[in-house]
Every structure is written in C-alpha cells, then in structure tokens.
Amino acid sequence: EVALPAIIVTDVKRAMALIAASFYDFLQNKLKTLALTGTKGKTTSAYFAKAILDKMNGGKTALLSTAQTTLDGKNYFKSELTTPESLDLLEMMAKALTNGMTHLVMEVSSQAYKTERVYGLTFDVGVFLNISPDHIGPVEHPTLEDYFYCKRQLLKNSRYFVANSEMNHFAIIKEEL
C-alpha cells in the first residue's frame, strides 16, 4: 500500500469548478459579469452588450461567445464551446483580469448548467432572451422541461436578472423571480 493524499468527490464536474475557482483565488469575483442565455440571439446580444460596456469603460470588456473570445478587448480567437469548461473558463477570467479587463460579457448555454461548467459562479447580471424547442433530442436535452430548467438556472445564479416578458413560458420565470 502507498499512502497518498487524495480528494474523493461524488461529483467530479462540481469539484473541478470549485477547485478551479479556488486555484485562481476567486478572481472571477473581481470582474463585473453579464451572462446571456436563450435559444436564439445570445451572440448578437453579447456583441451589442460588449460595445455598450466598452463605451462606458474605455474598452475593458472581455467577451466569451459562441463565435469568438477576447480576453484583452483587442485580439479575438475562435471559441471552442459557447461556454468553456470550468477550468478553462476560470483561467480565461484570470487572463482577462491580468489584461486589465473590468467587465466580462459571456454566453451561458443550457449545457453549461447541465454539465456544471459554471457551477459555483454568480453573475452580476443574467439575461434570459427566449426559449424554443431547438435543442431537444437524445444528444442535448430529452425534453423541453429539462432544457428550460437548465436555462432557468441563470436566474438563480445572478444578482440581477432581466427576462424578455414576451418570451414563451415567461409566466414560469416570473413566478421564480
């Protein structure tokens, strides 16, 4: 037998998110964060929000979107996932801070909540744009209820929350506010 230190967890994804936050000394709390979710319009809304914030803060807004990522407000690279895995996400937040960014606009997919990529994060502002049954199937969400539940987690993990009152199922969101 070899006696080695070990951490035994029941949920690897949640543990990874919490360890990553701790490893990066909870630097994500130093960024003002705006998180967007919805079936359609996340990327366009993220770019609009970044442009507005850049006018206010002199170009100090990082962006994580389905299309591109920028951690310094100038150099963009192709995103691998709409919402990065927790370790990558926390590393990107740390790099954004190192690069002098004060704000972060990011898209948060339903898969980010389903697979615990954003576990333990609280966003300053969460925005829910809309919902439609585009991601229902064996690969993503088995039912609309599962998909909608994952999307609504942003409501519970945001200090302030904005929702489109004209969206389908808004009454359910309103009940949870």
UniProtKB/TrEMBL annotation:
Pathway: Cell wall biogenesis; peptidoglycan biosynthesis. InterPro entries: Mur-like_cat_sf (IPR036565), Mur_ligase_cen (IPR013221). Pfam families: Mur_ligase_M. SUPFAM superfamilies: MurD-like peptide ligases, catalytic domain. Gene3D superfamilies: Mur-like, catalytic domain. Residues 37-176 form the Mur ligase central domain. Coiled coil: none annotated. GO terms for molecular function: acid-amino acid ligase activity; ATP binding. This is UDP-N-acetylmuramyl tripeptide synthase. It comes from Lactococcus lactis. The gene is murE.
